[in-house]
Amino acid sequence: MSDVTARSDQPVEYWLADRLERSGGPQPPEALLRGLRLLGRWDLRAYEAVAGMSTPLLDEPMRVISRVADHSKPWLVTAAVLATLGGATGRRAAVNGVAAVAVTSLVVNQPMKLVGARRRPDRSAMGVPVARWVPMPASSSFPSGHTASAAAFAFATSGAIPQLRLPLCAAAVVVGFSRVYTGVHYPGDVIVGGTTGALIGRMAARLGRRFGH
Fold first, then answer.
1. Comparing 26-30, 95-99, 139-143, 161-165, which segment has the lowest mean pLDDT?
2. Which residue in 104, 110, 160, 181 could disulfide with 62, CB within 3.0 to 4.6 Å?
C-alpha cells in the first residue's frame, strides 16, 4: 500500500492510483501505480509553477479569456459568422463545429465529470494570486470542459476549412492555459479535456466530409 492517499482536491492521477489500489479486485501492476503517481507529481508541480509565475500583465487578459470562453461563446459566435459569410463550405464547417461542441459537452459534463467527481484545486493554499481568480466552478475539476469544447470546435471546423486549424488550435491552447493560470484546473485536467475534444472534433469532421457531399 502506498503512503500517498489521494485527497479529492489533488490531481486526478493520485485519485486514480488510489482507486485502483483500493478497488478490492486483482492488484494492478505496481509499475502502473508508480507511473500514475509520478504523473500526479508532475501535474501538481506544473500547477505550482504556473501559480508562481510573476506575470501580472497576463492576469487580466487570462481572466477575460477564461470568462469569455464560458458556455462555448467564442465558438458559437465563430460558427455563426462562418455560416453567414462562408458560403456552403462555411455552413458545413459551422455545422461540424457546433455538433462537435454539443457532443463534447455531453460526454465531458456527464459521464467523465461524474465518474471523476474531482474537487477543484485549492488555489489559495497553492499560491495562485488573487488578482488572477475567476469564480470557481461548482462542477468537477476533471476534465476541463472549456478546453474540450475549444479543441472539438478547432478540429471539427478545420476539417472543412483547413486554414482555420492553426488559429483555432492556438485559441484552444490559450483557453486551456487560462484555466490553469486562473487556478481552476490542474494541467492534467486541461490535457485530457483537450485530447477528448480533439478526438470528437476529428470524428465530427470525418462525418461531415462523408455526409456533406
1. 26-30
2. 181
44 vs 54: CA distance, rounded Å: 18
H or E segment to which residue 50 belongs? helix 30-51
Rounded to whole angstroms, how far apart are CA atoms 131 and 147? 22
**Distant-in-sequence, close-in-space partners of 197: CB < 8 Å, separation ≥ 6:** 100, 104, 108, 147, 148, 149, 150, 151, 152, 153, 154, 155, 172
Query: 10 Å Cβ neighbour count for 114?
Result: 10
Average pLDDT score, the chain: 91
The sign of the torsion formed by the CA atoms of 36, 38, 39, 41 equals positive
* Minimum mean pLDDT range among 2-6, 28-32, 75-79: 2-6
Give the pTM: 0.91
Amino acid letter for position 210: R
Residue 35 in contact with residue 47, Cβ under 8 Å?
Answer: no
- The string of pLDDT tens digits covering residues 142-164 is 999 999 999 999 999 999 999 99
Indicate the DSSP class of residue 186: -
Euclidean distance between CA atoms 4 and 162, whole angstroms: 46
